Amino acid sequence: MTSEVEKPNRISALLNNISHTNVDVALICGLKLLLKVVGNILAEPSESKFRVVKKTNKALHSRLFSLRGGMEPLMIQMGFKQVGLDSLLYEGHNFTVLRNAVNMIEKLVNPINEAHEEKQEMLREN
Asked: What average pLDDT does the structure give for the chain?
């Protein structure tokens, strides 16, 4: 089990691995979806439906859990727990780890997203 002190380093390492094993478009889509899932928990922490992540959900399965490099271990480091074979559950009440993970994900996704948008704009102009 990872200590609270080690979690940011472990989350950073997992994000690094995920970012290097996926193409930019898939990475952006998947991590933006993760940001939405976590954002819902942070916005409404008492709403239980936001705390359960079903891996069998079509959008989650195709955009989030299809990413290579350790998405489930990343979510577990963020405070989710495996429930059965097809779900992850966030049971925590200390949202510091989630907020820190959001910051790390945004720092990773934003520059990639901006570069992708610039490339798309250049293609449209040509």
From this structure: 92
